[in-house]
């Protein structure tokens, strides 16, 4: 487990994360006041992933939901897709970049002495799923529907389990990833998509890829 030093240092990290979250909440509103030409251009429309049968969630996700029930709360009344505007797209790109720059990458084994643990990187460090969970928390606080932001398990370029955040939008499914600041269509990532949180129940669905990894312990 990696310690955070003195209590003063930990407090500073927590204050910094709160400030980052507050900045995100105000970002979309501020962006709406800018002209379209000052924002990132909207991405091309692509074909989204096709969910399949029910799938067993990662064990660490189940434990995460027990510790952070609000982060796993499910509301079928929310939109199932994000209606992208230039302001919203700019916010998504900004949050992905900010979290990738702010959080220190470290495996759960080195951090906590266990293969896989999901949290919100409260101490300023974490691995792949922690990056994505924090991004989702920030984007949800800024007004995006949590139902359209689904944690997703993939096999990465190294053949290892990895977690990304899928944004289901009216222009296709786009991926937020701690390995890149680019927000790209799912089919351009090079990953094999295994399963993700469902949109119609508190459950996971298969995405038709290979056998599921047991953990997502990739930095």
Blueprint (SSEs and pairs):
Elements: H1 7-32, E1 54-55, H2 59-67, H3 69-72, H4 86-102, E2 104-105, H5 108-112, E3 125-126, H6 128-141, E4 149-155, E5 161-169, E6 172-177, E7 180-185, E8 192-197, E9 204-206
Textual characterization of the structure:
Keywords: Signal. Residues 1-33 form the signal peptide. This is Bacterial transglutaminase-like cysteine peptidase. It comes from Methylorubrum extorquens (strain DSM 6343 / CIP 106787 / DM4) (Methylobacterium extorquens). The structure is a single chain. The chain has 219 residues and is of the alpha+beta class. The protein has one domain (53-206): C8orf32 fold. It is 34% helix and 20% strand. It is built from six helices and nine strands, in the order αβαααβαβαββββββ. It has a seven-stranded antiparallel sheet with strand order 1-9-8-4-5-6-7. Strands 2-3 form a two-stranded parallel sheet. The longest helix is centred in the first third of the chain and has 26 residues, at 7-32. It is globular. The chain starts with 6 loop residues before the first helix and ends in a 13-residue tail after the last strand. Residues 1-10 and 27-37 have low confidence and may be disordered.
């Amino acid at each position: 487990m990696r310690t955070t030093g003195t209590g003063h240092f930990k407090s500073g990290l927590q204050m910094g994360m709160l400030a980052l979250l507050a900045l995100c909440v105000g970002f979309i509103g501020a962006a709406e006041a800018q002209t379209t030409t000052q924002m990132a251009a909207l991405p091309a429309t692509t074909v989204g992933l096709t969910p399949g049968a029910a799938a067993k969630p990662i064990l660490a996700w189940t434990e995460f939901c027990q510790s952070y029930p609000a982060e796993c709360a499910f509301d079928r009344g929310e939109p199932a897709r994000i209606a992208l505007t230039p302001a919203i797209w700019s916010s998504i790109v900004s949050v992905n970049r900010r979290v990738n720059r702010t959080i220190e990458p470290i495996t759960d084994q080195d951090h906590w002495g266990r293969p896989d643990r999901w949290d919100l990187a409260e101490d300023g460090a974490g691995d792949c799923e922690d990056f994505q969970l924090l991004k989702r928390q920030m984007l949800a606080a800024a007004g995006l529907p949590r139902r359209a932001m689904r944690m997703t398990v993939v096999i990465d370029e190294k053949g290892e389990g990895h977690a990304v955040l899928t944004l289901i939008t009216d222009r296709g499914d786009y991926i937020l990833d701690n390995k890149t600041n680019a927000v790209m269509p799912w089919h351009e990532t090079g990953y094999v998509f295994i399963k993700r949180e469902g949109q119609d129940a508190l459950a996971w669905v298969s995405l038709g890829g290979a056998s599921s990894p047991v953990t997502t312990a990739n930095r």
